[in-house]
Amino acid sequence: MNASAHDFPEPIFDVADLSTFELFSPVVDETVWFFTNLLGMIETARSGDSVFLRGYEDPYAHSLKITHREKPGMGYAGWRATSPQALERRVEAIDRCGLGRGWVEGEVGVGPAYEFTTPDGSVQRINWEVEYYRPEKDQRSVVLNRVQRRPLSGVPVRALDHVNLLSRDVTANKRFFAEQLGFKLSEHIVLGDDVEAGAWLRSMTRSHDVALVKDAGGGGRLHHVAFLYGNTQHLIDACDVLTDHGIEFEAGPAAHAISQAQFIYVFEPGGNRIELVGTPGYQVTDPSWEPVRWAQDTIDDAIIWYGSPLPAEFDTYGTPHSGPTAYRTPNRYVAAEAGMILRADSSARG
Question: Which residues pair with 251 in a beta bridge?
């Protein structure tokens, strides 16, 4: 039986997509090397202690901003409104709930943006004005609906895909994204005590643009930011290249049942978790989509459809991170081990 029209609130389509993301790194040069030399992203500008990059199918002047900080983590997630009027509506809604921080000046490729936080304190921005990427003549593609020719460096990612935020209270953050920004719930994990352990929300038709997962700590930390290949073979090629260059893998290649996306998780040199997505998730075109509910006894299938299980720290490690961790990259174990070898070799020669 069809549900009554009164069962569905008027949908809000005021947020278009995740357009830019600021990543903090204590080793900016190494982080830039990872994204440009290995993942084929294009550097488009530098300003102060920040470097701006984009994937070859990202439409805007940049999609990733890498900024120096002593600890890894996220600066902000930037969302583009669907119109100037949509931006005004979202700013008013955010102001009413008390989480607005005010307008910030435009920066490289992005006009003025309104800054706010989630209930957990994760910094977000929303704006309308953007600069589109205009490739040089020798980088234009014969495929006229492609932003530029595919780069010949590394195994190039196509575009920024989504962000995953650790959340103290998944439900409160889910409601914020739904009520103040108009996001729709695609899937969620609900434990036996009816506590939401995870929620995957979309702004338009992509399976999800933001994911929220339970954090045992204060919440608001970055779990991961994801970039799209859109091709299984390119994901496998990336595994080959990343392995050969000493990048630490956390999980995969494997596939999630939630979103149905193929993935690998790796750590960039600054210590942030990066997801690389092979085949993208499904699209939601049904206007009365019923969110998929995963219960306690189906969590294993939800997270890993096929592939090896995730390590224990997948649920607890986020950036910034405090306390001990078994992961090498965030602790700079690789550099420490190399230093020990060099010192030992020097002592032996002496």
Answer: 265
Cβ pair 44, 52 in contact under 8 A: yes
Contact 103, 91 (CB under 8 A): no
Domain 10-333 has CATH 3.40.50.2000: no
Report percent pLDDT > 70 for the chain: 92
pLDDT at 341 over 50: no
- Give the number of residues written for the chain: 350
> How do the domains of the chain map onto residue ranges?
10-333
Q: How far apart are alpha carbons 144 and 1 in whole angstroms?
A: 45
DSSP string, 254-298: EE-SSTT-EEEEEE-TTS-EEEEESS---B---TTPPPEEE-GGG
The Cα–Cα gap between 114 and 98 comes to 13
For residue 299, the one-letter residue type is I
Q: What is the pTM of this model?
A: 0.91
Is pLDDT at 123 greater than 60 in this prediction? yes
Mean pLDDT, to the nearest integer, of 188-216? 93
Count of C-beta atoms within a 10 Å radius of residue 289: 13
Sheet-wide strand order for 184-190: 248-255, 262-267, 273-277, 222-228, 159-167, 210-214, 196-202, 184-190, 292-294
Does position 222 have pLDDT exceeding 50, yes or no?
Answer: yes
pLDDT at 343 over 90: no
